[in-house]
Specification:
This protein has 146 residues and is of the alpha+beta class. It has helices at residues 16-32, 69-81, 102-110, 137-145, and strands spanning 3-11, 36-52, 55-66, 85-93. It has a domain at 3-96: Alpha-Beta Plaits (2-Layer Sandwich). α1 runs antiparallel to α2. It is elongated. It starts with a strand and ends with a helix.
Amino acid sequence: MPLYEHVYLARQDLSVQQVEELTAKLSAVITENGGKITKTEYWGLKSLSYRIAKNRKAHLTLLNVESPSAALTEVERQERLSEDCLRYLTIRVEELEEGPSAMMRKSDRDDRGDRGDRGDRGGRGGDRGERRPRRDDDSQDASVED
């Protein structure tokens, strides 16, 4: 059977429990049509790059699915009918990713604290070499007299 990664965005005003119920409903549609869910990940309430239907944030959920294409066609139809679902994306993959997805691993990357990979920027945002002292008008006049 084909393998798919399916991600959907739910409205920001839903509770986590309501999002889980929506996920359970979509999972039931897949299993009724002969498929199975291998992994479900709730990615949390995230800020969007742009507004979608007056929502600045959305609940994101990933489903790793092994099912016939007809099952996912029905899931997408249900999501189009639902007012709670803002967007969805289904991608066919060669193999499903084991372990946590890239979104879940991202939080591990954010915890590293000090960003030592950027080097010393010298306080002005770049390596501009050694600074020359500013010359006052008096120092210019003195250098001309010499």
